[in-house]
Specification:
The chain is α/β, with parallel strands linked by helices. It starts with a strand and ends with a helix.
């Protein structure tokens, strides 16, 4: 059996290792489109902050690990998939045949369609190569203009500031991490950053970038001009699936997979940030781009690629963010639902925020800022669909009682 995995990130490597455990004889090939030793993308902020070296980003530290498992890591980016001929064509013209194919390509950065986006000094922050380029240009006093304050944009702030950068962040929507936090939580995170010297500019974005001698000149849509030594474009990511055009693999926002991580094409599976699957609570198709979800999907896909029949029970939207030391998280339907009820508790002075969202007798979503204790309790209440009974009204009156509610309800129902 020839197993081919497109993508050498956390999902691809987890799948390869699982395949080898289940099939000692199979040929296993992992296509690495970046040409790096497989690494953890989520380690990049720690590399930029000089908390780890490049070796610390590696998914496996034993240099003989993949060889000992007879996992063939091939350098090369997929350009097309021939589903009829069961082969993958690489961008250098090579073709790799497969019996079973797993697409675990993850995401790629979205690109701003503006003048000057390809100038020297303009960077994304997504790959190890990006991190090297940024680190080489930062020194104390470096002026950085960053477009975007989503998940990636918010987790790299500390890394940049720790190197002495003067950081200005442009927030097109006006709210930091607006896709994972309600307005008051976003405001609290922005306030925290501003108190530590980061300039946050809401409701604006870049109109164009020009060279101004050795520096950059960033013109905003408001007409204001910001001088910069580095421009960081972190405006979001999208599934890395363009190479599937014309393949017949069903795609909406991501690759559509069933409960066994199979696509509509026999022999082809997908996992991780490129896959669009049903969530475990409401059955809605979504992309849940978090590493634990990617790894779980990859392992289940590998089981099924070897003849298993293991279902993926669905993902739960979970976001955990560390922004300059301020921890925030959101779970499930943190934004609530139209006919549901919700409650907020705000302690702006201490940068603590709690939001609970209810659907009928269940907790369906939650947001926390400044909390590190008992965070898993909220996940348990949501994921287990615990019936709250009279505790629903008590939580609406005082959301801080969620631990007591868990002890009184979840354990009894378990």
């Amino acid at each position: 059996m020839r197993h081919v995995i497109i993508g050498a990130g956390a999902a691809g490597i987890a799948a390869a290792e699982t395949l080898r455990k289940l099939d000692a004889q199979a040929a296993i090939t992992v296509l690495d489109g970046e040409g790096e030793t497989p690494y953890a993308r989520m380690a990049i902020p720690y590399l930029l902050a000089r908390k780890i070296g490049e070796e610390g980003t590696r998914l496996r530290h034993d240099p003989q690990h993949y060889r000992s498992l007879r996992i063939d890591i091939k350098k090369g980016r997929a350009a097309a998939v021939d589903t009829a001929g069961r082969s993958v064509r690489l961008d250098d013209g090579r073709t790799i045949p497969y019996d079973r194919l797993l697409i675990a390509t993850g995401s790629v950065p979205s690109h701003e369609n503006i003048e000057g986006i390809d100038l020297p000094g303009v960077h994304h922050c997504w790959t190890l190569a990006d991190a090297r380029a940024i680190a080489a240009e930062i020194h104390p006093g470096t002026r950085i203009v960053q477009m975007g304050a989503g998940f990636v944009g918010s987790i790299i702030i500390q890394s940049l500031v720790s190197r002495g950068a003067q950081l200005t962040i442009l927030v097109r929507s006006g709210r930091m991490v607006s896709r994972m936090m309600p307005p008051k939580a976003s405001e609290m995170i922005a306030s925290w950053c501003e108190k530590q010297g980061v300039r946050i500019m809401g409701k604006t974005q870049t109109a164009r970038i020009e060279r101004d001698g050795e520096a950059l000149k960033v013109t905003l849509t408001t007409g204001e001009i910001l001088p910069a030594d580095i421009y960081l474009s972190v405006v979001g990511v999208k599934p890395d699936i363009d190479f599937l055009a014309g393949s017949g693999v069903a795609i909406e926002d991501g690759i559509i997979v069933d409960e066994h991580l199979r696509t509509n094409v026999p022999g082809i599976y997908a996992a991780g940030d490129a896959a669009e699957s049903r969530d475990r609570l409401y059955g809605k198709y979504q992309i849940n781009a978090i590493q634990p979800n990617a790894v779980e999907q990859a392992r289940i896909a590998a089981v099924n690629m070897t003849g298993g029949d293991t279902p993926f029970i669905g993902s739960l939207a979970i976001n955990v963010l560390d922004t300059m030391g301020l921890i925030s998280c959101s779970f499930g339907q943190w934004q609530g639902e139209p006919d549901g009820q919700g409650v907020e508790q705000v302690d702006a002075a201490n940068h603590r925020y709690l939001s609970l969202q209810f659907g009928g007798d269940h907790l369906i979503g939650a947001t926390m800022v400044g909390f590190t204790e008992n965070v898993g309790v909220l996940r348990g209440l949501i994921q287990s669909k615990v019936k709250l009974g009279p505790w629903r009204e008590r939580l609406l009156a005082d959301p801080s009682l969620f631990m007591e509610a868990y002890l009184a309800t979840a354990e009894k129902q378990a």
